[in-house]
Amino acid sequence: MEDVREVLARHGFYFKKKFGQNFLSDANLLSAVVRDAGVGAETVVLEVGAGAGALTRALSQAAQRVLAYEIDASLRPVLAETLAGCENVEVVFGDFLRADLPALERELGRYRVVANLPYYVTTPVMMRFLEEARACDGLSVMVQEEVAERFTAAAGTPQYGAVTAAIALKGEARIVRRVPRTMFTPRPNVDSAIVRIDFEEGRIPVQSPSAYRAAVRCAFSGRRKTLENNLMNAFSLSREQAKSVLREAGFADMVRGETLAPEEFARLADVLSARGIAE
């Protein structure tokens, strides 16, 4: 395929900072990204952010079907050219965060997500799949390296946060490839990494996933505060009620939320759920 930069230039395309556009074009890297994602002949892929279509085209050569979202309609003529002949690809021009995900899943059936996510939408896109998706088998997302370290962080480390615990409920996140900034057009100021998460139903047993999410939000609502204080603030509990919840969940009074492993959040969530504090 012709170099992406030449195609973009011919169509008079200009990069828009508000969309965080940094495109890949190296054929070897793109093939590796597809392999890293575990895409095969039976795989249906949902791509968030088609960009100039280089990754979309590589996915189409391996997958059964690719449905790609692209927010920038000015890329329409570029994608018409770069995806010419890719009969198994459909591009939807629109904001994925506004898409009707249940309807999309009914149409797609089981699918995997592959995406080169710009920084400004990384967390909302990730949380949408983590909290709302029902037919997704997993995610392979290229994100800023620092974000990738957060996604895969261990409990109690500075990088560990609410999104880390949210990911852990659905699957194990691991960094499968690091991508230097020199591989992108235009070149960003930071390096990137690919995080792969394979979803596993019931990986961490919990009575109520929504109570788990509430427990996590509560724990990280005040990072340097004790979990006892955060429970009081988040759920309007008295100090004695908060202490009682902690005792039943098996935690010391002065424990801080950011030190809890995902399995411990599940334990806390089950107590909150059983007591009707969090649904």
Task: Furnish the topology, listing elements before pairings.
Blueprint: H1 4-10, E1 23-24, H2 27-36, E2 44-48, H3 54-62, E3 65-70, H4 76-82, E4 89-93, H5 101-108, E5 111-116, H6 119-132, E6 136-144, H7 145-151, H8 162-170, E7 171-179, E8 184-185, E9 192-199, H9 209-219, H10 227-235, H11 239-249, H12 262-274
Parallel strand pairs: 2-3, 2-5, 3-4, 5-6
Antiparallel strand pairs: 1-8, 6-9, 7-9
Helix pairs in contact: 2-3, 6-8, 8-9, 9-12, 10-11, 11-12
Short description:
By secondary structure, the protein is α/β, with parallel strands linked by helices. Helices cover 41% and strands 19% of the residues.
Describe the structure.
This protein is α/β, with parallel strands linked by helices. The protein folds into 2 domains: 196 residues, Vaccinia Virus protein VP39 (Rossmann fold, 3-Layer(aba) Sandwich); 66 residues, rRNA adenine dimethylase, C-terminal domain (Helicase, Ruva Protein, domain 3). The protein is 41% helix and 19% strand. The chain has a 7-stranded mixed beta sheet with strand order 4-3-2-5-6-9-7, with helices on both faces. β5, α6 and β6 form a beta-alpha-beta unit. α2 packs across α3 and α10 crosses α11. The protein starts with a helix and ends in a 5-residue tail after the last helix.
